[in-house]
Amino acid sequence: MQPKLIVHGGAGSSLQGKGGLAAVRTALHQIVAEVYALLAAGKPALAAVVRGCELLEDEPRFNAGTGSVLQSDGQIRMSAGLMAGTAHRFSGTINVARLKNPIQLAQALQAGDDRVLSDLGSAELARELQLPLYDPLTDLRLNEWLRERADNFQKKMAGTIAEAEPDEARRGTIGVVALDREGNLAAGTSTGGKGLERIGRVSDSAMPAGNYATPEAAVSCTGIGEDIIDECFAARVVVRVTDGLTLAAAMQRSLQECQQRQRDLGAIALDATGAIAWGKTSEVLLAAYHDGITLGDTLEWTGADLVGGKA
After folding, report:
1. Catalytic residues, which ones?
2. What is the value of pTM for the model shown?
């Protein structure tokens, strides 16, 4: 099987809040190149997905790990989900703090009986694993929160820079979907949340709604978490592929339903045949992929048909 890979760094209405087209393209292409090299060398899909998520979490321009947005009380709480397709096994961490790579907790939970932990349980697991304490706060995110506090938190969610659209951060999820040489699929998704949210709010990233994989297909979502949860989008696409639709058709039908209900989201996906698909109802999807031959991205894709892809 020829390995395949697709990653995303969020969705939104422009690239302005992420530093512009060239900066985002460089960041995504470097990550895809490094992770695809692992798949080409024979590494399993799950390990490649974890590494890809780590690299995206470490890139401060994306709202996950380092550079995560602050909640209403000025604290960073991050969530991540991971699913191994062949094992049909989901794991996740919800609202964890003071950690560099939340995806590592989701990875550790893959082997356990209790596979989704909230904030207190996640903190205890991090101590058991002896993961070092880490402050993911950046000056940009702190100053952003201070500006919002000075304005008495009039916005419903954080922006990314003063000149950016005020709703960009809520679409800042990162995700990775991989198919390895043995034909195994895996998906991982991580986020810092939408910013300024009510304390304890849970995103879609640590739910099958936003991150789902089976032996047939795997999907990672980005966008407004509540919209993704309401649609149970990732699981819906995978189930439709399992029921016989092609990956492109499953994405197209699911996105059409979302568009009718005025949902704001995007998704990346792979199936067991190696087909790659992506789609969005938002204006921009920050994704890049490797189809086994070439490295490409969706940064200038208009999305007139909602769904794009590679065979």
Report:
1. 173
2. 0.94
Place of tokens 């649609």: 231
* C-alpha dist (Å) from residue 303 to 226, 238, 269, 300: 22, 21, 15, 9
**Domain tally for the chain?**
1
CA distance readout (Å), 90 to 42, 208, 235: 23, 8, 12
- Answer yes or no: is 132 within a domain: no
Q: What is the pLDDT of residues 134-163, one digit of tens each?
A: 999 999 999 989 988 887 767 655 554 333
Residue 71 CA to residue 203 CA, distance in Å, equals 12
pLDDT given at position 169: 47
- Per DSSP, the three-state class of 91 is strand
User: Which residues, 6+ apart, have CB-to-CB distance to 82 below 8 Å?
Assistant: 46, 49, 50, 53, 90, 91, 92, 103, 106, 107, 109, 110, 186, 187, 188, 211
What angle do helix axes 119-128 and 102-109 make, rounded to 10 degrees? 80
Residues of the domain holding 245: 4-72+80-90+137-310
pLDDT at 148: 85
Q: What is the pLDDT of residue 17?
A: 66
89-96 and 116-117: which strand pairing? parallel
Establish if 100 belongs to a structural domain.
no
In a domain, residue 58? The reply is yes
User: pLDDT (tens digit, 9 = 90+) per residue, 284-294?
Assistant: 999 999 999 99
The CATH number that applies at residue 175 is: 3.60.20.30
Q: Identify whether 105 is part of a domain.
A: no
Alpha-carbon distances of 254 from 241, 246, 249, 280, rounded to whole Å: 11, 12, 8, 10
